[in-house]
Amino acid sequence: MIALESDRLRAEIDPAFGARVTALWDRRVGREWLVTGPREGGDVYGGAQARGWDECFPTVAPCEDPDWGSLRDHGLLWGRPWKVAAHGQTIRATFEEGRFAFTRTLDLHGATLTASYELESRADRPLPWMWSQHLLLASRPGERILAEGAWGWTDGDGAASWPIEDGRDLSLVEGPEAGFARKLYARVPDEARAALFGEEGGIALEWSGAEAPALGLWIDWGGWSEGAPVHQLALEPATASADDLATARKRNAARVLDPGAIADWRVAITLLDPP
Q1: Has this prediction a pTM greater than 0.85?
Q2: Total structural domains in the chain?
């Protein structure tokens, strides 16, 4: 493990396992904000794999793609070794494959951890792709979810309602006994801020819709996975309101990177003080 530390936050990264961020420890209130647990690999991303903060590229859900072939669940990056270099309050991690290099640089300043991304195409033809940040939060019953700058909510197939849907307040964290799970998406036309907050403070993600024009919201109050339900929340800045590259391409929502081109974007993650 490699760590970044400030007087407010300790972040831990596992270079050998997808450069997964395994801990976001709030030193002020003594709380771990990420879902923790032993690492489990494989090509299926189930309840045993749903830990920490991974990067999903070039898909989230598994699919067949004419350029990539068979894409595994949650993409090519998680669970695989990355090259990592640490210097001061910065950790730079890179995953390289024949067609691309994907780099995430983490910079820690006080209560804010900024993730800066760079995707370089090394392919000899245009490269279709999508990305989603997969940061699984250890939410607690009674806490609240905030989604500012997010509009046009869908469930992937049709229109959805936020925050009230069928009489249920989706912005209120319920306990695992609820047996409820829901995945929603929203458009981010400009600046966005998604947060989880409560009596112990909170955690907020901020990014630009010009760089990542979607928000994925994964709510799981003990409704997934079958046979081994978990309790978690994911606030997911993303490049498309879809869970797989095939669907994003059908909707003309996939990104395309020309040979030799570079795409870059960033997300700032900040711990919030208690009220």
Answers
A1: yes
A2: 1
